[in-house]
Specification:
heterodimer; A: mainly alpha; 2 domains; 3 helices; 66% helix; 0% strand; B: mainly alpha; Four Helix Bundle (Hemerythrin (Met), subunit A); 9 helices; elongated
Chain lengths: 106, 243
């Protein structure tokens, strides 16, 4: 059995280093601080926009580095993108329906 | 299974964990990762439905959602965000340890992830308990009274803008979505922690640090996904309605 413990040869597999993980971790902490700080400033309609923009940035960092998508095959990148795409259809189309129907009757 | 694998590895030279129908370990890993991502896509759509419902109702009952959101403690929410982000980091380090065959590093990473995950759930429990005490849990004991007549602060002024009774009852919709979203997120955390315990026992026995670590990597994907859900829940529920 002992000979089978050699490293499985995975073509071009990339091991993400702890340094990268630590940098992303730091970026996520900074992002959290910024989003909490921004919520204390009254920016009117821009509060949700900024909060969501920061959340999308943080999520992208997690997907690309913690979830290794940056170093993955094209198939995996396409899979993730198609997930984001269908999610945007779900949200976008539903909201456009609600926004464009029965104006002022809520 | 084991004897079969042993016999097989004598015939050809490839790792015992390689299943018959794959060409090599890389292809097997690629297939497993692909399957995990497909599962995560269904999860995105599942939470996406909840997020959409939240956005629609927030537009309909905006004052009620703002008032409901003001009852949440931003400090607790922020602390929980820190716990979860840190647990994602320890999980990522666990993946690295399993890739570089550091057994004790992997074990300690998983232990840290478990502790941080349980800490998150503990704080969530404190928040839920307060909601029960204030009768803010949807159902027969729900009361919108504290939104019609908000509690007074030290100067005798209302802590929040009072709502008309017909708007105040819609805070129940806010709390329904609050419990549905954070509750489903917590269920994912509880399942994740249960799986983490299983992974911990196996990695203490030396599994996942002998070159075959797909299980750890795929669980890492799940754990990071749960982190991402919270990255969106925190601003939507706690932060954006502050003003």
């Amino acid at each position: 059995m002992s000979e089978i413990t050699e490293v499985p040869e995975s073509h071009g597999e990339h091991i993400v280093s702890p340094k990268v993980y630590a940098l992303i971790f730091l970026a996520l902490l900074v992002g959290t601080a910024i989003t909490v700080g921004a919520s204390y400033i009254d920016l009117g309609p821009w509060n949700p926009v900024i909060a969501l923009a920061i959340a999308v940035t943080k999520a992208t960092l997690v997907v690309l580095y913690f979830m290794h998508v940056k170093y993955s095959s094209k198939l995996m990148k396409l899979t993730v993108l198609s997930g984001v795409f269908t999610f945007l259809i779900l949200v976008g189309m539903s909201l456009s329906d609600y926004i464009s129907r029965a104006w002022g009757q809520w | 299974m084991d004897s079969h694998a042993t016999a097989h590895s004598e015939a050809h030279e490839h790792p015992a964990h390689l299943r018959h129908h794959f060409m090599d370990a890389a292809q097997q890993k690629e297939s497993a990762t692909f399957g995990m991502w497909l599962f995560l896509l269904t999860e995105i759509m599942f939470f996406g439905g909840l997020f959409t419902a939240y956005l629609v109702y927030r537009n309909w009952y905006y004052p009620a959602f703002v008032a409901g959101s003001h009852t949440l403690d931003i400090k607790l929410g922020m602390f929980n965000t820190l716990l979860l982000i840190t647990s994602s980091f320890t999980m990522a380090m666990g993946v690295w340890c399993s890739e570089t065959r550091r057994k004790s590093g992997l074990v300690w990473s998983l232990i840290a992830t478990i502790i941080l995950g349980i800490g998150f759930l503990g704080i969530k429990t404190i928040e839920y308990k307060e909601k029960f005490e204030l009768h803010h849990v949807p159902g027969s004991s729900f009361s919108a009274a504290s939104f019609v007549n908000p509690p007074l602060d030290a100067q005798g002024k209302p802590k929040d803008t009072p709502l008309a009774p017909d708007m105040a009852i819609h805070t129940e919709v806010y709390f329904s979505l609050y419990f549905a979203m954070t509750g489903m997120h917590a269920v994912h955390m509880i399942l994740g922690i249960a799986i983490l315990f299983a992974l911990l026992i196996k990695s203490a026995k030396g599994q996942y640090t002998t070159g075959h670590n797909t299980t750890i990597e795929l669980f890492g994907l799940y754990w990071h996904f749960v982190d991402i859900v919270w990255i969106f829940l925190f601003p939507l529920l706690y932060l954006i309605s502050r003003h």
